[in-house]
Amino acid sequence: MTAFTQTLIEEYAITNLNNWELWFMGRHFGLKSRLSDFTTDDTIAFQFAIENAGESSARIYCLDIESSSFELIQQDELREVNPFTFNRPCMIHPAPLYSDIAVKKLGVSRIQIQRGNFLYQPLESITTPINSQFYPEHWKIFEIHPEHFGSIKKEIEAETRNCMDMPLLKYSNDLDKKCAEININSLM
Fold first, then answer.
1. Greater confidence, 186 or 181?
2. Can you give the residue ranges of every domain in the chain?
């Protein structure tokens, strides 16, 4: 997190993010953390699922937050809480401030486009797969075979008028590369 924070300060003059916003921002650029992002938009979920699937099947994991054991917390409620010591699994709905900063200072809109929440896992539960932390009735997994990708894309394009072959979510940014380097260096 220190290396990511330094990059934001030195290369982008971003200095006013709290620890949670730093984690949210880092997660959107691939920084490893105890956060998993969930979108509320099925089109975005589909794009992420097929993005690197190639000839393999893609999976979309759907969580019923209303009936799950994970509480939904607004980021503002965590203002005085340190993410490094917080010890309660939950979904966090981020405040819009950090996404505005990303658009204005980084020229990146993917954070706003994704419209989602973050699942926060305490350190002691991080090695347990997410889907096994829920009751099966709160969790659905949709598997999409590659031969259906094209027809689903066409159906979405007809309904939303969005081109599904455009990289709407992941225009490359130097922070993606920097976070990949940080991830590798943290393993050494």
1. 181
2. 2-187
